[in-house]
């Protein structure tokens, strides 16, 4: 558990040395930590819950993603705390303690890859591995003031990773510096270093920024200035994304309810997208884990137990519509962005909430968060959360989104844009 110096980020510490002592490897001398959802030979992947850890075997092999990083010269220094069964974006764990947010100690670190984000934010490691199903890399990256990358769906092996919901599960990573983010990405994506390419268009999703409590001029404006400086005014476009999605994704009509249209400022089509994402996620989670949950009756913390219970009650009804929405959204966003276009959206609706905030108070924040997070969750595109420093003493960020498969392009773009953002 927490020692004075580790911010409560680690479940257990150990050293896995690089597989070669050569000094010219791309990740030579870098350290990293892994979320407690990855197999590491000789350890149990504890999935954030003590009952899971007690009832599962020690791993007999290490996840390929971890092995790839060791082969590239990095040293793994331990496993990090996560939300139970990866079923939260808050980062609070009743069993193992909540990792401390290095940017704001009275705020949540974000989940479910909380410990991995905190380890990077607190400078305990150079980078770390997490997973992102509904937002579990992007949210803690934003809350802890660091970079977080969610790759295109299917781009990185999920072998040796406990599944949450396969239609959305991805292996993501965190770094404090865009160059390290990029170096790690090229190893995990097994992609050659490509020459940076100018984006054909940078689209600001105007309506999405209305969901954020941070003033408009603070977030998109900083990106707009950097883009103008780098590529000129001509690549910039503005889009009301909710209207575009509503027109191009007919399957969403099924999830457009009175409730979705009447909430305090929201975007009905994105709220519907979020409903579809969470329904399919619940159904897949149930298929993966209901047998174990019913047999073991694990002790689950507040918020998690209610979500797990909802998942166990989910039926196959409407899951086929969710799959067609995934296809429709991917096609719609592919035609919006083209090969080298980028969408600019808020990562989350504002700074991290306070620790132990009552769940009903968080309701609107969560609903808005999932409206934003579902854009990439459902389309399977890649997204990076970029830290923009502090606003009112709390960390803020912005996200860039590119088409499925454009991960290398997006990693380069982050480096260029970040270098030109006025800090």
Description:
- It is a single chain.
- This protein is of the alpha/beta class.
- It contains 14 helices and 11 strands.
- The protein has helices at residues 50-55, 64-71, 114-121, 138-143, 178-188, 206-209, 220-231, 241-248, 258-262, 268-296, 304-312, 319-337, 359-379, 407-419; strands spanning 10-16, 31-35, 75-80, 127-132, 147-150, 170-175, 201-205, 236-239, 341-345, 382-391, 394-402.
- Strands 1-3-2-4-6-5-10-11-9-7-8 form an 11-stranded mixed beta sheet, sandwiched between helices.
- Strand 10 and strand 11 form a beta hairpin.
- Helix 7 packs across helix 14 (407-419), helix 10 packs across helix 11 (304-312) and helix 10 (268-296) packs across helix 12 (319-337).
- The two termini are 35 Å apart.
- It comes from Pisum sativum (Garden pea).
- InterPro entries: Amidase_CS, Amidase_dom, AS_sf.
- This is Amidase 1.
- GO terms for molecular function: hydrolase activity, acting on carbon-nitrogen (but not peptide) bonds, in linear amides.
